[in-house]
Amino acid sequence: MKHFECNNALSIYHKFKILKKILLIPAYSNVYNVEENMSNPVRLCLQNVTYHCYSRCIEKRNMLSPEHVKDLAADAINMALEKYDFQVVHIEFVENHFHLLIRTTANGQTISRIMQYIKARITEKYNRVHDRTGTLWNERFSCKIVEQQDDPENYFLRLLWYIAYNPVRKRVVRDPRESNFGTIRAYLEKDFTPKVKITIHEYFNSLGNTFEERVKYLLEYEVLYRDKYT
Description:
Mean pLDDT: 83
CATH superfamily of the largest domain: Transposase IS200-like
Largest sheet: 4 strands, antiparallel
Number of domains: 2
Shape: globular
Radius of gyration: 18 Å
Helix content: 40-55%
Distance between the termini: 49 Å
Strand content: 15-25%
Strand order of the largest sheet: 4-5-3-6
Structural class: alpha+beta
CATH topology of the largest domain: Alpha-Beta Plaits
C-alpha cells in the first residue's frame, strides 16, 4: 500500500473504512489516500478513476477571460502532464472558472497533488504577467468521481456536453466547437489537435467499433444542452 500523505494516517484510514460502510462507497482496491481536515469534507483520492474537477477565481472575478490567460492555464496543465503520471480527458475554461476531467493512473500522483500543482502554476504565471501577488482562486477545487455515479457511462457522456456548453451558457461563444481552449472537438474530429494533450476516455471508445459510430452516438447527447442554451 502506498504511503498516506495526510497526518494521522492510521486514524484516517479507520475513519475511511467506517465512512465507506455508511456512504456505500464502492470498495475499490486501489484506494491510496484520504484527505481530511477540520474545515473541509473528506476527499477520496483514488487510482484509475475519472475526476470532474472545477475551480473558481477569487471573488468569482472574470480573471480567466482573456485569451492570453487561458494560454497560461493550458501551459500549466501541460507542465503538470510532463511532471506527473495522469491523463487529461476534457477541458473547458470560462471567464471565472474552469473544468477539468482528469483520469488518475495506477502509479500516479493523487488528484489533490495534481490539482494543487496546476492551480499553483496558473497563479504563478498569472501573477508574473500581471505584476500582482496573492491567490487566484476563491477556494480549494471541487470534484466528483464519475465512476461513483449511478450510471457512470451515461453521466460521463452528459458531462462532456455540460462542460463544453459552459461558454455557450455564458454567451462567450455560440457553439462549443468555437471555443479555442475547449476540447469537445477531440471527441468529434479525429485529427483535432488541442492545446493540451487529451486522452480519449474509455467510455467514449466503447460507444462503437469506429470513430464515426462513436461520434454519432455522442451527438445524440448534445441535444440536451443545445436546445437549452442556444
